[in-house]
Amino acid sequence: MARSVNLILSCVALLAAALLGYVMTPHRLMARTHDVFNIDEHIPHAFGDWSPLPGAQAIKPPPDGLEAEIYNQEVSRAFVDKAGHVVFFIVAYGESQSDRLQLHHPEVCYTAQGFRVTRPSTSKFEWSSSAPPIPLTRLVATREDRLEPISYWMRVGYDVSNSNWTRQALKLEYGLRGWIPDGALFRVSTIGLPQDMSFKLQDKFIRDLLNAVTPETQEFMVGEPGKALLGS
């Protein structure tokens, strides 16, 4: 009799654990709560001092099966200003930031393609007098005679964070609310210019772009501070 009771209690405990695990596992994709956001249609081909430069190619992740799973949309553009300076801009978007599927840092992408990269450094970037700054990460990639300063930021759900630790914490916090956050990487780079001049040019490009797009596109690119979990 005691053995039967213990068996029943064990089964109940296993079922309860399974049910709790299911309840605690996020199932709702944030990306499915709104209409499909077509990045190519929302990122302008020309704005301010910047014109499109057809044919110029940015460094992209090597095509493989995992990249196709991670990213649902990718947009790559090249722009040139009136002085002839070229800026490459890439957006990589994934609707599900899970433990297995998550944004790749540019330093990983460049290293995989034979570049040497400097240690990344992150600082607050003021892009608008009426909006909070975003963390902007910088590094320099070199391969043979190609020197490419890079700036990037990452959005996860309503937040912007380039730190692996913070992004993991964000995914956990969103998960406790039942959400699987989406994510997007925004990368800006230049070639053929000294490092300091490159970063100043990239700063101008990012400010010009963010202030040229619609409010909806701004939210897609830098999140929504009013709903963000960081600092809340």
Number of helices: 7
Task: Name the helix and strand elements from N-terminus to C-terminus, one letter apiece.
Answer: HEHEHEEHEEEEEHEEHH
User: Mind describing the biggest β-sheet?
Assistant: 9 strands, antiparallel
- Radius of gyration based on Cα positions: 21 Å
Précis, in short:
This protein has 232 residues and is an alpha+beta fold. It has helices at 2-24, 39-42, 65-70, 106-112, 164-176, 195-210, 215-222, and strands at residues 28-29, 51-52, 73-80, 86-94, 116-117, 121-125, 134-143, 146-156, 159-160, 179-180, 183-189.
Describe the fold and architecture.
With 232 residues, the chain is α+β, with helices and mostly antiparallel strands. It has one domain (28-222). It is built from 7 helices and 11 strands. It has helices at 2-24, 39-42, 65-70, 106-112, 164-176, 195-210, 215-222, and strands at residues 28-29, 51-52, 73-80, 86-94, 116-117, 121-125, 134-143, 146-156, 159-160, 179-180, 183-189. The strands form 2 sheets. Strands 2, 3, 4, 5, 6, 7, 8, 9 and 11 form a 9-stranded antiparallel sheet that branches. A two-stranded parallel sheet has the order 1-10. A hairpin with an 8-residue loop joins strand 6 (121-125) and strand 7. The longest helix has 23 residues, at 2-24.
